[in-house]
Amino acid sequence: MPEKKNYDVIILGTGPAGLQAAIHAARKKVSVLVLGKETRSSVYHAHIGIQFDDEMKYIDTNKKMETNVPGVFAAGDICGPPWQMAKAVGEGCIAGMAAAAHAKKMRSSV
Q: For residue 60, is pLDDT > 70?
């Protein structure tokens, strides 16, 4: 049986956004699981409880790129248009910094 691994945070979205988020979080010594948009939205919604828009196309986030599930962040195309590299990278930076802050807060509360 494969060894189970625990992660501090989950980033939804790959490409430039997910990469930026993972880099920023890893710099703060946070373990990150990055899942791509290739995974169907129904999986995120049914198994994790992620909130989507009304059409079930894009993940709803706040300005810190936090989803409705604590410790799960999303960035890039998976959050909806516009489809721009600068937007994706910016969202990735925000998600990574917010993820690192979340992990630090969780560690200090234990």
A: yes
Give every CB contact of residue 83 below 8 A, 6+ residues apart in sequence.
Answer: 77
Q: Sketch the domain layout of the chain as residue ranges.
A: 9-105
pLDDT in tens, 26-50: 999 999 999 876 555 667 777 788 8
Place of tokens 């920023």: 24
Which tokens hold the place of 63?
């300005």
Which residue in this structure is represented by tokens 């995974």? 39
77 pLDDT exceeds 70?
Answer: yes
* Total-model pTM: 0.89
Question: Under DSSP, is residue 30 helix (H, G, I), strand (E, B) or coil?
Answer: coil
Instruction: Name, in order, each residue with C-beta under 8 angstroms of 64's C-beta and a sequence gap of 6 or more.
Output: 73, 94, 95, 98
Superfamily for the 9-105 domain: FAD/NAD(P)-binding domain (3.50.50.60)
